[in-house]
Amino acid sequence: MLLNILLQRKEESYYLKISVHQSSHNHSLDKYAYRRLPKNRLYLPAEELVTMDMLRKVGLSQKKILRYIRDNTSSEPDMIDVHNLLAKLKREDERGMSVSDRVAETLGRFCESDRFAAAHADIDQEGSRRISMCITKQTSHMRVLFSSFPEAMLADATDDTNASRYKLFSFLVHDTMGRGQHVQHALITDERAETMRLAIMQFKKCNSSWPDVRSIVVDKDFTEIGVFKSEFPEARALLCRFHAIKYIQERMAKTDYGLDALQRERLKPMASLIVRAKSQEEYNQCLDYMKHELQVENSG
């Protein structure tokens, strides 16, 4: 590239003037190079774009769409071109739709792909905004699992699972191998009793075996215990062993009991022993030791 630039003055202002500009390409110029430009690799008329959108909606993979374009059109795209095209078609398809509308559409497609699946969204209206308070999803396999093993159920909550900080509220059961298997997933906005009750009510609606639940293990959130006790009156709500031990140790660490560091260290293993006690006698022995260390009368 050759540039000839002049500095000129006009009254009180200075400006640059390009008098000579000579440039050349640093690559070969031919038909192949022109066709390999990103904007030329994939050029489809309107009727072909309609076909691409249809293939996207039926769930055809990007690899198969790429093969279709190369076999049926004059374009020679790369995989990234197909990826960008499908993303553009999806954005245009979703334009004008609210998040709640897209949630409903997604759940509808989910149920269409699995005949006996169940999905539901509870929408709350706040002024002009529509907020999905609870989104539940259950495959047909999950429903079969629960109907086969309804006696013991585990509830687990995971915080901040997406950019909107939704909680993943999941139900699990034990299969014949003793492994935990999910039987429902629910995305909830918060862990208030009213919100969790929405997920539980939808679960009961879609699973007729729910009265057979006899025990429910929950994590450290005591709000869950109250909700499950009210919705499953015949079941016993239990705090999971890990969080029970952690809760006892945290209580012992509080300064309200006036324990010194040595006492807290001696009592720390007792939290695990008392939770894991296999008999009433073993439990009473651990409890008596803790009362002795805490200087609490046995009658209390």
Automatic annotation (TrEMBL):
Stretches assigned to the ZSWIM1/3 RNaseH-like domain: 110-238
Superkingdom of the organism of origin: Eukaryota
A Pfam entry, by short name: ZSWIM1-3_RNaseH-like
Transmembrane segments: none
Protein name: Zinc finger SWIM domain-containing protein 3
Organism of derivation: Phytophthora citrophthora
